[in-house]
Automatic annotation (TrEMBL):
Record-linked Gene3D superfamilies: Divalent-metal-dependent TIM barrel enzymes (3.20.20.150)
Domain of life (superkingdom): Bacteria
Domain Xylose isomerase-like TIM barrel: from-to ranges: 49-276
Signal peptide annotation: 1-22
InterPro entries cross-referenced by the UniProt entry: IolE/XylAMocC-like, Xyl_isomerase-like_sf, Xyl_isomerase-like_TIM-brl
GO molecular function: isomerase activity
Keywords on record: Isomerase, Signal
Designated name of the protein: Sugar phosphate isomerase/epimerase
SUPFAM superfamilies: Xylose isomerase-like
Species whose genome carries this gene: Prosthecobacter vanneervenii
Length: 349
């Protein structure tokens, strides 16, 4: 392929990828967090092809095992593949907090793990290297969540010169109910807003007993990446139940969310990470529940969360049928949830 042909194909792919966004007048780029269709078992190249087939703007490869290897030649090949399709890549990893219950030394020390992610992000042209602290279990035990926040700040600061030298920002996610918005904001400010920001997740915000639009007001100005889904909440005898849903199927006012997101985090894509089909109870009526969320019960944020539960209604969970078709059913369900979210965002965002 000569240079002229390559450039022509690249421009055509870019135009196709942005077609639906231009047609709807949306200010938001729309992308996929690979975890939305995790049942496929695909590697990075296959996820890029899938994003291209849907004419998305971005592809967020949010975990390192999705790469076949970390060699420069392989990574550059992925970038060329994405460039041809007009897709911008975002890169992330998991826990880099060595005091968290989620911590594993698969990629060396926490600093080595985050440094590797930064290098991969640089090669793939990602503006961010996403990572997270842990999950809601880290709110228990001596020192609570603050002990882990301090540990993660140390790791991030140890990688500051590398991140700044490569022009990569470290995006910390509010993950699985680990940190509330004010806690993640404090972490980012302690580490340094110049090279650290938020990977915002409104579904995980709900797991931390926060209302997504209020959560967005706190973290929106610090947001540099996203992994989004909707949520349905309803009341039960012990408190409330949360089930994540496709965008547009839940109780969150996602039209207002998308509008405010574009205002607070201009240029940042909305990247769909649907993790639907199961319900999680939150027994907030029991006193022991509040040990992990001290001082939150009487806040406007919790009252707004509770109002969502009062307005919501129970929905069925998904269970793939047992047997040889189980995996195919899971893949079809996950693709359906993600693709319905893209359609809703293109029509309403």
């Amino acid at each position: 392929m000569n240079r002229r042909t390559f450039l022509a194909q690249s421009l055509a792919a870019t135009a196709a990828a942005s077609l639906s966004r231009a047609a709807t007048g949306s200010k938001l780029a729309i992308g996929l967090d690979h975890f939305a269709v995790r049942a496929t078992g695909w590697k990075a190249g296959q996820f890029i092809d899938y994003a291209a087939s849907l004419k998305l703007d971005t592809m967020f490869i949010s975990e390192l095992p999705i790469f076949e290897n970390f060699e420069e030649g392989y990574l550059k090949g992925l970038k060329e593949q994405a460039d041809r399709a007009g897709i911008k890549l975002y890169v992330g990893t998991g826990c880099v907090c060595n005091t968290s219950n989620r911590w594993k030394d698969t990629y060396g020390t926490a600093e080595e793990h985050l440094s590797l992610t930064i290098r991969i992000a640089k090669t793939l042209g990602s503006p961010v290297a996403r990572c997270y602290l842990g999950d809601q279990k880290d709110r228990s035990g001596d020192g609570g969540i603050q002990r882990h926040i301090e540990s993660l700040v140390k790791t991030i600061k140890a990688c500051q010169s590398k991140a700044e030298g490569e022009g990569i920002k470290i995006a910390v996610e509010n993950h699985a109910g680990d940190m509330q918005s004010h806690e993640l904001k404090a972490l980012i400010e302690a580490a340094g807003k110049g090279y650290v920001g938020a990977n915002i997740d409104p579904g995980n915000a709900v797991w931390a007993l926060e209302e997504p639009l209020m959560h967005l007001e706190v973290l929106g100005p610090l947001t540099i990446c996203s992994s989004v889904r909707d949520s349905m909440l309803w009341e039960d005898e012990n408190g409330a139940v949360v089930q994540w849903t496709a965008v547009g199927d839940g109780i969150v006012d996602f039209k207002a969310y998308a509008k405010r997101f574009a205002e607070l985090a201009p240029g940042v894509p909305l990247q769909v990470e649907t993790i639907s089909g199961f319900a999680r109870p939150f027994a907030w009526k029991k006193d022991e529940f509040w040990k992990i969320f001290p001082n939150h019960r009487d806040t406007p944020m919790f009252k707004a969360w509770l109002d969502m539960a009062k307005r919501g209604h129970k929905i069925d969970s998904f269970k793939a049928p047992e047997g040889p078709s189980k995996k195919d059913a899971e893949i079809a369900y996950q693709k359906g949830e993600a693709e319905r979210s893209f359609a809703w965002l293109r029509a309403n965002a």
